Amino acid sequence: MTRAAGRPAGHSRGRLEGRTAGRRAGRHPGRLRRTLLAGLVAAAVVLPVSAAASPDVPAPPPALLAEQAPLPDRYAANRAGLAEAARMARDAGRTGRAAKLRAMEADGTARFLAFDGRGRGRAVEVFGDLETADRVAVLVPGSDTTLDTYQRFRAGAVALQQRLRAGHPRSAVVAWLGYDTPGTVSATVLTAGRADAAAAELGPFLDRLGRAAAPGARLSLLCHSYGSVVCARTATGPGVGDMALFGSPGTGAGSAAELPTGARVWAGRGGADWIGHVPHVRLGGVGFGTDPVDPAFGARLFAAGPGGHSDYLKPGTPSLDSLTRIVLGNDPEAPHA
Fold it and tell me: Which pLDDT does position 183 carry in this prediction?
């Protein structure tokens, strides 16, 4: 697939951008101060917020399976681990977590490629028949996605799979909560540390996923919010044909051409998404720079409709229609000027 258009950063360009950034900072000193203040506030609350968001809930270690284990065996082992985690949470008096884990079991029909009930938790769930799918969408979530908020993430995956199946029965969706997401109000959400660690996990996972799906399957990465920072740092092989960034705070890269992928890079933002008001700056490793929907970034833009930050995968939305078309290899409608 072709790489999105863009020009690599060079020495002269760096000097030019430095002078341009300086002039912008001079014209908007209030905006810059607000950005720095936001970082200081986040750093001040990170410890209490993180402690509250990571309950010490007992859970078994994740199932250990050989890479070549058949998918039915993998699903069964992870369902067993999920059921045991729910039992241990209940016995420890963590009734809220226990209830959420029981909901994830989906009456014994859930298909998890991976599950870890410890701490904030990790889970990788399949919707559809992966072995016969030649169109596979991988959803990468943003901040504050944990086992305790998993149903919100799952609902988006289900909505996408329903739309895909209506137009292409041989499709599957993988909800990849395969990393420790940062808290929305935390210092970690302002930097790429969690994203770098996640990208190191996501890249090899995509390679394995391509081998598990139908021969020649086309994979698409759909990356929401901080998940777009993860995807932008993930080296992808030729099996990944498209990468869609939505609700993105930026990627840390100056252009789509700088991303370590040969996939087509897409970007979209809902009209009521608050993240559009976040200053797209990068100072000393804090912030993520160029806005992916800025034409200067070089991504292909898709219509995302009037929705807010959590609305991209809601049924009936223009954003869900656009993302469905991207996964199926059909160009979506461009946003109206």
Answer: 83
Q: Structure tokens of 198?
A: 């996640």
Q: Model confidence at 203, in pLDDT bands (50, 70, 90)? A: very high
Enumerate residues 6+ apart whose C-beta is below 8 A from 259.
4, 232, 243, 251, 253, 265
Q: For strand 122-128 and strand 171-177, is the pairing parallel, antiparallel, or unpaired?
A: antiparallel
What is the per-residue pLDDT across 111-150, written as a single tens digit (0 to 9) for each?
A: 999 999 999 999 999 999 999 999 999 999 999 999 999 9
- At position 9, the amino acid (one-letter code) is A
Bridge-based pairing state of the strands 122-128 and 112-116: antiparallel
Which amino acid belongs to residue 34?
R
Percent of the chain with pLDDT over 70: 82
3-state secondary structure 262-331: CCEEEEECCCCCHHHHCCCCCECCECCCCCCCCHHHCCEECCCCCCCCCCCCCCCCHHHHHHHHHHCCCC
Edge-to-edge strands, sheet with 300-301: 112-116, 122-128, 171-177, 135-140, 218-224, 240-246, 264-268, 300-301
Whether 335 contacts 302, CB under 8 Å? yes
